[in-house]
Amino acid sequence: MDWIPIVFIAFKVLVFGTCMFFAIKWHYDQGKKKQNDSNEP
Fold first, then answer.
1. Which of 28, 26, 8 lies closest to 18 in space, CA to CA?
2. Above 80 in pLDDT, residue 41?
3. Counting Cβ atoms within 10 Å, is residue 14 exposed (0-12), middle (13-18) or buried (19+)?
4. What is d(CA 1, CA 32) in angstroms, rounded to the nearest whole number?
5. Would the CA dihedral through 25, 27, 33, 39 be positive or negative?
6. What is the four-CA torsion angle of 28, 32, 34, 40, rounded to 10 degrees?
7. Is the pTM of this model over 0.70?
């Protein structure tokens, strides 16, 4: 029964890592889009 907490912690780390990746990517894309919009005449 000791493997259950290990599986849950690994799953939690995987989910948080994925969410952080997409959050950072979204913010990066938003900044890029804003920069491109301000450069156009």
1. 26
2. no
3. exposed
4. 48
5. negative
6. 180
7. no
